[in-house]
Design a protein that fits this description.
alpha+beta, NADH Oxidase, binds flavin mononucleotide
């Protein structure tokens, strides 16, 4: 498919037809995604394709537990799991989620409820010893290491388009990473980066809600003049 179209229309899809996803298609997707960049070209990613219904069911329960926490924080008006947040309000929301469980303030939603039945479920892991976490010594939350695995995850999403597949990158199950790792027999060196659901979509999202270029690009400094040529190009 055309690159610009893929970049502009690869939104999150959580609603799938029952049609299965061929292993051949998954292999092609992974074979294209493997060309993603990583710091020092270390390619620390590993992938588990989860097929066993019992394992999927365990993953679903883990997903749902995290999702209840996410929803409780959202209901409290927080940005869920933001490294900088109102910690008292967050603790309160998390306490509510653990008390009420899956029947937290807002309903769970079909996707979380049926997470075990998504047509294809890929767990993206990463070898922490292979990450170029150049911000690890700074006095702030670190995220540069993720840049050595999330381009790969995004390449999976883009490569899936070529197969007529859609899906969503999810991370909420990482809230219960120890349980997830136990379930999937993951060793200590690996961390869970994402769970990717893929399938044949019930509908095709086209117009994604995103900021305009002049809302996030300035010249020479933060708060500087907007990069207006780019702005015109984005409309
Ligand atoms: C790092 C990351 C983590 C995400 N985690 C979840 C998740 O746990 N569950 C979920 O349903 N969606 C998850 N999403 C999907 C986002 O909610 C989605 O990309 C965003 O809301 C934009 O949606 P849109 O493409 O429909 O506009 C995640 C996306 C990213 C990039």
């Amino acid at each position: 498919m055309e690159l610009v179209d893929a970049l502009r229309t690869t939104g999150a899809v959580r609603d799938f037809l029952d049609d299965p996803v061929d292993d051949e298609a998954l292999v092609r997707i992974l074979d294209r995604a493997r060309f993603a960049p990583s710091g020092g070209n270390r390619q620390g990613w590993r992938v588990v394709v989860v097929k066993d219904p019992a394992v999927r069911s365990g993953v679903r329960d883990i997903y749902v537990a995290g999702w209840a926490e996410y929803q409780a924080q959202r209901a409290a008006g927080l940005t869920p799991f933001a490294p900088i947040t109102d910690t008292a309000a967050e603790a309160d929301a998390l306490e509510r989620a653990s008390r009420d469980g899956v029947v937290a303030d807002s309903f769970l939603g079909d996707f979380a409820e049926n997470f075990d039945t998504v047509p294809a479920l890929l767990v993206v892991l990463v070898d922490i010893g292979m990450l170029a976490a150049v911000d690890r010594d700074l006095d702030r939350y670190t995220f540069a290491g993720g840049a050595s695995v999330y381009p790969f995850a995004w390449s999976i999403m883009l490569a899936a388009r070529e197969e007529g597949l859609r899906g969503v990158i999810t991370t909420i199950a990482i809230r219960r990473e120890p349980a997830l790792k136990k379930l999937l027999n993951v060793n200590d060196e690996l961390a869970v980066a994402a769970l990717i659901a893929l399938g044949h979509p019930k509908s095709q999202p086209k117009h994604l809600k995103r900021m305009a270029v002049d809302e996030f690009v300035t010249i020479d400094r933060v708060g500087g003049p907007p990069f207006e040529v780019m702005n015109r190009a984005s409309s």
